[in-house]
Structure formats: structure tokens, C-alpha cells
Specification:
single chain, alpha+beta, PH-domain like, Herpes Virus-1, 2 domains, seven-stranded antiparallel sheet, two-stranded antiparallel ribbon, PH_domain, transport, phosphatidylinositol binding, membrane, zinc
Length: 249
């Protein structure tokens, strides 16, 4: 079905509409063989709180952005190559239900659908696209994933020293390796994580010691792929500003 739609006028028109919704700031999305599989609003768990984001699933990429005007205008376009994506289901917790993790080498995060049926459809379509891509390319699934950041609301004190309390002066920071919320003194060091950045990034002292001694796999978060402790934020508490984790540490 995807191959049949690839060069159809209807598919070309649909992709063109998506491009126009992102405006001049968005990247061109029309390339030979690309098919728009589906779209919809998902709630993305960001650093500060859950936020509504518009997602578009193509046969080779996943695109999402902030909602400026529903169905008409989006900004802050993000493009994720599906070849690098792994997804895992998340247990329901309070208002945060029907969720799953989207994990890539550069960035990983949790999203939530409105219903269990919608979640199942999204996950099935994503897995099918990833499987087809890997089958065609002969590549193996990615086994390296960026940590899912622990939301700010889950940590009132540093998750490493367990002493420093967070205040407007004593800011929260995130370790890029384990995703923990840590204080400044516990995350003064930086380390080069090529999959995430061309420059050294902030990591906690614990991960730095393990990375420095070559024990890289040991510094994965003890809660890395589990969001059973997700914050009890309301799914209606959303905004259209930029993702917090993209603009602060």
C-alpha cells in the first residue's frame, strides 16, 4: 500500500499541506518515495509539564511541532529518522495514560495518546515503518538511546547527592547520560557523547566516573525506561511554547 501511494497525487498534496503548515522555518518534506502514513495530536512529556504536540508519521521519518493554530499552523519542527527509533509501552499512571517511549540515540521522550486504541494504532504503525526500513536497508535496530529526562516535578532534591534542595537560585540540571535531575555541584563536568552533540555535554559526577573508566553501560538510569513514577500533571495543562529540554539544562 505504501509503495502504491508513494507517487500518488493525493500523497503529494497531503505532504505539501504539512510543509505549508510549518511555514518557511520548516524543512522541506517532499522527497521521492516518502508517504504520509498518519497524523494526530499527542501529549509529550516535557521537562516542565506535559504539552500537546502535533505529530506526523511518514514511512521514513517522524515529525512533530508546537501547535500554533490547530490544523493550520505549527512551529518548532523536529524531524526524527525512523531507522533510529525504538518504542516501548509505558504503564498508566494517574492522568498520564496510553503512553509509550520514543527512544533515539540523540533524544528520547514519552508521549501519550487520548485513547488505548489510538496508542495501539500509533505503536503498530511506527513499528511497521521501522521494520520495513530496516528490512530494506539491511541495518540492525539501534541499541544506543539517549536517556529519557526525569521531569523537574519529580525531584525536589538532587537525585545524586540527595541533599541539595532546588530553589529559584539553586537550579535543576539534567545529566545527559542518565537523565537524572541534579544540582550544579553534582554536574559540573562535561563529557563528549557523540550521538547527542559534537561538543561535550553536562553529565553528573556518577556518570562521569563510569564513563571515564570505560564502564559506560553501567551509568544508565536505574529507571531509564520506566515512567511508572510520572508526575500527576493534568493532561489539560499544556502550552504552545518551546520544549523546555531544548532550551535549558
Amino acid at each position: 500500500m505504501v509503495d502504491r501511494l508513494a507517487n500518488s497525487e493525493a500523497n503529494t498534496r497531503r505532504i505539501s499541506i504539512v510543509e505549508n503548515c510549518f511555514g518557511a522555518a520548516g524543512q522541506p518534506l517532499t522527497i521521492p518515495g516518502r508517504v504520509l502514513i498518519g497524523e494526530g495530536v499527542l501529549t509529550k512529556l516535557c521537562r516542565k509539564k506535559p504539552k500537546a504536540r502535533q505529530f506526523f508519521l511518514f514511512n521514513d521519518i517522524l515529525v512533530y511541532g508546537n501547535i500554533v493554530i490547530q490544523k493550520k499552523k505549527y512551529n518548532k519542527q523536529h524531524i526524527i529518522p525512523l531507522e533510529n527509533v525504538t518504542i516501548d509501552s509505558i504503564q498508566d499512571e494517574g492522568d498520564l495514560r496510553n503512553g509509550w517511549l520514543i527512544k533515539t540515540p540523540t533524544k528520547s521522550f514519552a508521549v501519550y495518546a487520548a485513547t488505548a486504541t489510538e496508542k495501539s494504532e500509533w505503536m503498530n504503525h511506527i513499528n511497521k515503518c521501522v521494520s520495513d526500513l530496516l528490512s530494506k536497508s539491511g541495518k540492525t535496530p539501534s541499541n544506543e538511546h539517549a536517556a529519557v529526562w526525569v521531569p523537574d516535578s519529580e525531584a525536589t532534591v538532587c537525585m545524586r547527592c540527595q541533599k541539595a534542595k532546588f530553589t529559584p537560585v539553586n537550579r535543576r540540571h539534567h545529566c545527559r547520560k542518565c537523565g537524572f535531575v541534579v544540582c550544579g555541584p553534582c554536574s559540573e563536568k562535561r563529557f563528549l557523547l557523540p550521538s547527542q552533540s559534537s561538543k561535550p555535554v553536562r553529565i553528573c559526577d556518577f556518570c562521569y566516573e563510569l564513563l571515564s573508566t570505560g564502564e559506560m553501560t553501567a551509568c544508565q538510569s536505574t529507571r531509564s525506561d520506566s515512567y511508572s513514577q510520572s508526575p500527576k500533571s493534568s493532561l489539560n495543562d499544556v502550552s504552545d511554547d518551546d520544549d523546555d529540554e531544548d532550551s535549558s539544562d
